[in-house]
What does this fold into?
Amino acid sequence: MLRFDYKNADISIVGQEHGLDVEYEFSSYKTKIAEIITDLNKRKDKPGQWLQWMNLGYSEETVWYVKEYASMVRNRFDNILVLGIGGSALGGLAVTEALLKPYWNFLTPEQRDNFPRIFFLDNIDPDSINGLLDILNLKKTLVNVITKSGSTAETMSQFMIVKSRLEKELGEDEYRKNVVATTDRQTGVLRQIAEQEGYKTFVVPDDVGGRFSVFSAVGLLPFALVGIDIDEITNGIKDMDLALKNTDIKENIAAQNALIQYLMDTKKGKDLSVMMPYSSRLRYVSDWYVQLWAESLGKDTDKQGNHIHVGPTPIRALGATDQHSQVQLYNEGPNNKIINFIRVDEFDTNLEIPRIFEYTGIGYLGGKTVNDLINAEADSTRVALADYARPTVTISLPKVDGYHVGQLLYMLEVQTAIAGELYNINTFDQPGVEQAKNYTYALMGRAGYEDSARVLQAKMAAV
Ligand code: PA5
It folds into this structure.
């Protein structure tokens, strides 16, 4: 199982001003946390609560359909092209980067066991879209277009471009075999298009928001298509879910970190929360976490409708790289952050540094491993931060594999849901994102958005 270590957030290490009396806080919040956990588990099956993501690890039907489709198209495609943005892309990126062999797309088909390469288009930079489409053989590319709403401008404009090119290359009928759509069961434009055109489809389940959808078909389908063992992932989620059903905060690591992050923000002025894995394979877990934490917790109103403007700002960092970029600021700049380290016990490779130089400055490295070095750097950065009275917590993964990555992401989802309850906000809406989406629709001339367009033009003229 994953381990969680909070001692460097405690007053005994970082002092009274910047630390928490963690054991005292755990006792003070014992009842509140138990109520939150009980309530989340009670509400999770009820429609309209947006908690269906808590059931995704048990969705045997989805796993079955995903595997069946993946085996049907096995050996037919050289590339998977995922079109999506935000919650429809970040989980896929995080897990494929973590679980596929490094530099997957550069490996030969044999090195990939004949599974396809995978590309995510999660932005609308014209140069990068065009550049990618120019290098992909579209005849040998399966396009997985993912959008829950079915009308997100970025994703659907990409899809329109890709569909036209596919049709040109494969013909009006044949091209359909190269498209699989993941979208809402019933509503949305993509659902309509898929039915009209006869695409294979998968469902983003009801009551699962984009940023909590990684373990639905949104993530599982791309994972299975590139040969990732999705049973291993769901086993990790199920075991973690069982552990996180424990209502005793002393036994529940998601509740512990939710409370620590919440109190650091609200009591100790640490309104920046850094996610810093010491593993390149986990680098996009930070991007995924940043969206999860920011969109879920950054809110205007509380549940009673009072304007409270809360939410810690998440920051992505990568160890050891960012030791040479951000850590100077973390050590000596404003003491307004809590840093979440992720540490890996055992890497797949044991990489020895050859004894080839005897120079005093570097000779000591010879005969050691890079594995020792990266973890020594994680430990020494944590200790240095403590010297400067900077609080940190550490999540340790025994290995970067499907079981533990499933556990990690699920733990962070539960942690987010618990933190949302502590802030007393709606964790699962995103009115701030919708506002910008509406303005984009207005600017681009979408029917029904004429009033917004007028408001927007007046505002733009005024500045
Ligand atoms: O978490 C969310 O809800 C958002 O980030 C969405 O995932 C993102 O806006 C994309 O939406 P959709 O899947 O509807 O295209």
DSSP finds 17 helices and twelve strands in the chain.
